[in-house]
Structures are given as structure tokens and as C-alpha cells.
Amino acid sequence: MSHLNYETRLPLGQATIDHFMGLPAHPSKCQATYVWIDGTGEQLRAKTRTFDVKPKYVSEYPVWNYDGSSTGQAEGDNSDRYLRPVAVFPDPFSGGHNVLVMCDTLDNEMKPTVTNHRQVCAAIMKQVADQHPWFGMEQEYLIVDRDEHPLGWPKHGYPAPQGKYYCGVGADRAFGREVVETHYRACLHAGINIFGANAEVTPGQWEYQIGTCEGIDMGDQLWISRYILHRVAEMFGVCISLDPKPKVTMGDWNGAGCHTNFSTSEMRKPNGLTAIFEAMKGLEKTHLEAMKVYDPNGGQDNLRRLTGRHETSQADKFSWGVANRACSIRIPRQVADEAKGYLEDRRPSSNCDPYLVTAMIVKSVLLN
After folding, report:
1. pLDDT tens-digit series, residues 152-209
2. Which residues belong to any copy of the GS beta-grasp domain (predicted)?
3. Same domain, yes or no: 363 and 231
4. Domain assignment present for 238
5. Sign of the CA dihedral with 156 first, then 162, 166, and 171 last
6. Number of domains present in the structure of the chain
7. CB–CB of 332/345 below 8 Å?
8. pTM, entire model
9. In Å, how far from its chain's centre is CA 361?
10. DSSP states of 96-115 as a string?
């Protein structure tokens, strides 16, 4: 239990941090922070290198290596793994010419590592590019102390029951808004298509939405937005939990998901509701397969969340309906009224891999 008693307060040396981070960015050099998914399939790693001149295109950023034995992606006697840049974003933390670089992870034969699902996703998106698949993902998360206790919760008890926290305003119901607002602005600066943010049903739980994004761009943007979220939380001395149902919330508290909105050009046309209804056939057919890839642990994480309670469907049953948040797939009321638009897949967990989720939806609806 030593982790409960910290002698050092975080963040460290705030005045010193402010001094040096307040220095102007270098006028010509570029700090490129390479970001990648580690062997857990849900955690991120990053390291930074300097370029004398900022590369103009993502293809100009070189492949770099890292120690895969320290990230759960290799053995010590064959530890080198490779980072291949795939997307570049302005760095909201250091400004100037500095960038965040989302990377593929490759093994010693330059093949995707086990938790690198981007390459397959990109190939699938290329097959359906003419149908212009649009996505929007709703990332829920819980802000926690370093002892993994939710922010704002009593250390030896529970907060008041759910009801007043969703979109709540006030110090007795909105815990961690500083993190949320900072993350929002950082995403805007980074060129992320952040659509909005709000407090969620469980105290200390929040949500932000990324989209609209087309094809592979959805996965790239969500992963980088998560990296930015973890970095922002780090600066405030707190942590982010993407666990869909942490132990402390196993009572009468909502879990966390990553609801995924999807549409094709056909669905967005007048009378596109017909195409949305037709999509339900493919989504139902692949339900069990989808449940295995909608969290990074083969569907086991979602079993704690998708119980049929707390605005969820049951994990073993496929269902859909209009304006029904207890279904696998929800068709928003406005979409039904306008007879065109999009569908919402409510099954993905908060710690899902967006490359797997978006690829699965496209396979189910367009390639099944």
C-alpha cells in the first residue's frame, strides 16, 4: 500500500516548469514527439527527437527504433522494434515548429506488431473510400488520483448518488473541469477535430467527442487526443482511467464507453434511413465477432460494463432501436425524423482500439 503515501507532490516544481516552458519555441529547430501504442493495446508511449528543419510531409519523418522488450512488444534478445510515422499534428505543449507524430509499430521484419491494427484498418478504408465512411467517437473517461481513486470521491466512502453530475455545474458535482478545458484547447491547437465535451453521469467521469473524421483519420485523431489527455492530466498531477468499469464503480454507477457514430454517403442522402436500417443486418450478423474486438482484452472488459443496466445493452444479445440507449445500436430521434443521417454503435468500450472498431463497422456494413 506504499503507493498511498507519497512524499513528493506532483506536478513537480511548477514555478520551474512555468519558467522554462514559457521560453519561446526555438525559431528553426523541430522537436518531434513520436507516439505509439504499446503491447497492452491500450497504453501509449512516446519519445522525442530534434530535427534541424521541420519536415514538410509525414513521409519525410524517418523510421525510428525503440526497445520493444520494455513495452511488452519483444523479448530482450531481439528487442529492437520500429516506429513508422503515419500522421503528424502540431504539438500543443511546446508550440513553435514542434509536432506530435503518430506511428505504426513494426517488428524486426518490418511487419506490424501484434497490437498494431492500423495497417489492416487502412487497407479496409481504402476499399470503401468511394462510399466516404464518416465516424465520430465519444470518448468517456474517469479522472483519478494516483491511488486510482476517482477525483472528487470521498477516500472512505461514496459520493451522492448519480443524477446531478451529468452536464453538471458546481464544485459539488463537477470534478476536474480544469483538465477537461485544458485538453479541449490543446486538441484544437493540435488540429484535432474535437466536437465537444461534457461531464458524464458518474462523478469524476467526463466525455469528449472526436469527429467528423473520414476513414483511417478517425483512429489517428482519437489516439493522439488520448495522448494529449494523458499529458494534460500528468501536468495536473492526476491520472486518466479508460477502464470501462473500474472496481470502485461496480455498484450503481455508469461505466465508460466509446460510442461510435457512423455513416456513409448513402445514409446521408435523402431517404438514407433505408440504408441505415439495412446496415442492421450486417451488424447483427457480426455481433459476437465485434464484441471480441471492441475492447483490448477479447471482450472481457465489456462484460463488466454491458449488463443491460446503466444505459447499456447486454453483451450477448444484439439489439437496435430509435432513441433507445439500452440497445447495441441507437438511431437518434432526429435521424429518424429527417429520414437520413447516421447510426450510433454503443458497444465499444472506453479503452477500445479505434482502428479495430472502425474497421469492424465497415466490414459489417459494407464488406460483409
Report:
1. 999 888 999 999 999 999 999 999 999 999 999 999 999 999 999 999 999 999 999 9
2. 30-110
3. yes
4. yes
5. negative
6. 2
7. no
8. 0.95
9. 16
10. TT-EEEEEEEE-TTS-B-TT
